[in-house]
Every structure is written in structure tokens, then in C-alpha cells.
Amino acid sequence: MVFRDKVVAAYQKIQDEICSSLELADGKAKFEQEIWEREGGGGGRTGIMQHGNVIEKGGVNFSAVHGKLPDAVKKAFKVENDDFFATGVSIVMHPSNPHVPIIHMNIRYFEMDEQTRWFGGGIDLTPHYLIDTDVRFFHHLLKQTCDLFDPAFYTKFKENADDYFFIKHREETRGVGGIFYDRLKPENTGLTFDQLLDFSIAVGNTFIPAYTELIERNRDKEFTAQQQEWQYLRRSRYAEFNLVYDAGTKFGLETNGRIESILMSLPPMAKWTYNYQALPGSPEAYTLSMLKKGIIWA
């Protein structure tokens, strides 16, 4: 089997398993599956869950696209060739209860030729209300996954996440980070491409045990209208990051990707209240105080 076909098959399986597990965890909503084709080559399968017991809006998107790279992307990637192939799974979950965190995961493989190919991805958490034990549990699972492949991976990729998921114009991190990596290949990891695929799959398989546990811990907590307003404010920061800084969003738009799939990460409802100030000593103020780089969680 051609290597890229192995990656595609593995990613499709991860999408199927995550959709099934999230439906079980939610207990009400089902994923609407949509098959789509990209005009320039390839296509994908988008799964959208809405109006569930837990998930207000969530997407689990698989894509495998190919074609010609635009000049802007070629320049950003520092490559000369035009032909590319890219496949990945991208997930964002926006829960209805503000005590359940937003979660994002992306695993991807990019290829131009035998010499120019790599894996990227990551998984990160954005709590509306920061709960220390939840964050430590989440980071501990990620460290366990990374340690199976290289004991240096977690620290390195955690620092990458802190740097990447940073909203510069707000001077705060998008959430509590996780891991983020890009351009992983044998030359910079010491792993073969098959081992890197195994790592990518392992990251994908970390999603369900991490998120279903956080759902169960928090799904039945009561919340007030004021707490939901705070949730809408935190969602607005999430939207700002994705529209201004997110590389995947930019890549999708610049390669004529499918708009509905690219923008599935945006929340169903967000608010931009002018000059909101959290009350000193409040849970909201505590959450804001922890949105910074370099916190050791695991």
C-alpha cells in the first residue's frame, strides 16, 4: 500500500471512532455526515453535531486533498514544487455548559514528493472556567502519549502549543494549551515515517479518553446566565484566534478549501462586550490569570 493511502485509512478510522464515541457521550445528538469534493482535487467528509445534551456545536472533519499550491503557500512552506497532497482530521467541540471546556484536535500529513513530506498536528484545551485538576489530567494524558515515542516530545510540543495558541493582540493564551507540532520527519525526530504515523494515530486516539472524562466530570454542573455570558466572551477570543492567526484556516482559504469545513471551528454564539472587566477574586479573574505561557501542568 502506498504510504499516503495508509495515512488516509488510519485518519478515516479515527474520524469514525471519534464520531461514534462522541455520540455515546452526548446521548442525544447525532453527527450529520456530508461528503464533499474539492474543485482543485480531492475532498473529504465533514461530521457536524448540533443541539446535543452536551455539545452545542461540534465538527469532526476528515479531508484528503491534492492539486497545485498557490504561490503564497509555496513561499510560506519554502518549497519550489507545485503539486501537493494533504490529509488530516480536524476537530472542534463547543459545549453548551460553560463548565465543560472547548477542545480542539488536528492531525495531518503533507506531501509534495519523497523528500518533502511531514506530519503535523496537536490537541489543546480551552476552558471557559479553569479547573486545575481537569487541566492536569488532560496534560498528563498527552505526556503519556508523547512519552511512548520520545521522552522529549511532551516538553517540546507543550512549549510549541504555548507559543502557537497565543492571542498576541490580547496578550493571553487561547486556553491552557496542550501539544502542537509541525514538520515532523525522520531527519528531526529520529523516527521513521511509519513510526511518525503511529505517533499521529496515538495523538488521535488520546482525544476520546481525554474529552469524555472531562465531559463526565462537568456536564451536570449548574450554571447561571452570568456564567453563560462569560462563556460567550471566551468564545469570542477563540474566534479571534482562529480568524486572525490559525495556520490551518489560512491554508484552507488560500487553497480554495471548503468554507463550511474550514470555519466549522467557529462557535454557534459569541459576544464581544465592550471593555469587560472580571471582578477581582472571581472564578473569571482566576481563569484570566492562568492564560499565560509556561505553566507546568504535567
How helix-rich are the residues, as a percent range? Answer: 40-55%
Q: What integer value in Å does the Rg equal? A: 19 Å
Instruction: Sum up the overall morphology in one term.
Output: globular
Q: Order of strands across the biggest sheet?
A: 1-2-3-4-5-6-9
- Overall pLDDT level: 94
In total, the number of strands is 9
Distance between the termini: 38 Å
- Tell me the series of helices and strands, N- to C-terminal: HEEEHEEEHHEEEHHHHHH
Uncertain residue ranges: none
Largest sheet, in brief, is: 7 strands, antiparallel
Q: How large a portion of the residues is in β-strands, by DSSP E?
A: 15-25%
SS content category:
alpha+beta
Total helices: the number is 10
Quick rundown:
This protein is an alpha+beta fold.
Describe the structure.
- This protein is an alpha+beta fold.
- 43% of the residues lie in helices and 24% in strands.
- Strand 5 (102-111) and strand 6 form a beta hairpin.
- The protein contains ten helices and nine strands.
- The strands form two sheets. It has a seven-stranded antiparallel beta sheet. Strands 7-8 form a two-stranded antiparallel ribbon.
- The protein is globular.
Keywords:
10 helices, alpha+beta, 298 residues, two-stranded antiparallel sheet, 7-stranded antiparallel sheet, 43% helix
